């Protein structure tokens, strides 16, 4: 299928569960979050990888940073209120700056990304982060995200795994494109793990994201099912699959359970929108894929087809230099300082 057709199909899936929820995009003022919510017992200490991000020496950086906290209203309902954190240098030139959107991993929140936001802002970028659906300010307790996944399985009326946040990121691109301080032709996007998947699908469906760096996020969902390598991904949100197993009368989670869950909560994730088909559609925009060679959630053998297809697509349009895949040896499902540096260099080169 051509890119335009596949994008239209994906947008139709997004619209299928929100036809009665649409509202004009509006902005509400917010305030800094004093006590960010981290779910599921995730580590909330320092991230040496993020803190290693290249930054420009700016005297009194904290005092020179402008911080904006606001909400984008992307649809009706409490999850239609997207918390946004924006950082930029308080300087006058240039008037319109490049912007990079940063997306957190499962169970974390936008505040977790502050070391990256500050580092990129010091170098003249506008740095933006949002709370993904059912995370951060969009969560009320330690199990909000898992509860939302279970509800999606039971009721089939929401898509909290990847797709609904992609809707928000389309709306975020609307907002950023209209801002007087943003160069609308220079909007980059990156994320870690779940955030990497958000970056991948947002860039696939919305060409306004012009430079893309998914970190430990790309995987072949169908490959994992066909090759019985789905366990690590399933384990990251296991209570959802346990609920489905019980509902389906199974004694253990198996391939059928996995496939039925994806079909219900993210239709097409393991078929027409899977990595071999959607990743090459990002062509000719600069795309850097960063993974760990030993990552069980994003197994490298399952990336061979999407990577080869993407490389071919970029070569065919004379843009082979705008696509790179790096699998860091000996690294599992972890964002490393090397990945942070590679991403930084990629944005500096192309954005």
Which structural traits does this protein have?
351 residues, 9 strands, globular
Explain this structure:
With 351 residues, this protein is an alpha/beta fold. The longest helix has 16 residues, at 163-178. Strand 2 and strand 3 form a beta hairpin. It has 14 helices and nine strands. Strands 1-2-3-5-4-6-7-8-9 form a nine-stranded mixed sheet, with helices on both faces. The radius of gyration is 19 Å and the shape is globular. Helix 6 (163-178) packs across helix 7 and helix 10 packs across helix 11 (255-265). It has a single domain (3-34, 63-350), classed as 3-Layer(aba) Sandwich (Rossmann fold).
Topology (elements, then pairings):
Blueprint: H1 3-16, E1 26-29, H2 48-51, H3 61-64, E2 65-73, E3 81-89, E4 97-103, H4 114-122, E5 126-130, H5 144-155, H6 163-178, E6 182-192, H7 194-205, E7 209-215, H8 221-226, H9 231-236, H10 238-247, H11 255-265, H12 275-278, E8 287-292, H13 304-316, E9 323-328, H14 337-350
Parallel strand pairs: 4-5, 4-6, 6-7, 7-8, 8-9
Antiparallel strand pairs: 1-2, 2-3, 3-5
Helix pairs in contact: 5-10, 6-7, 10-11
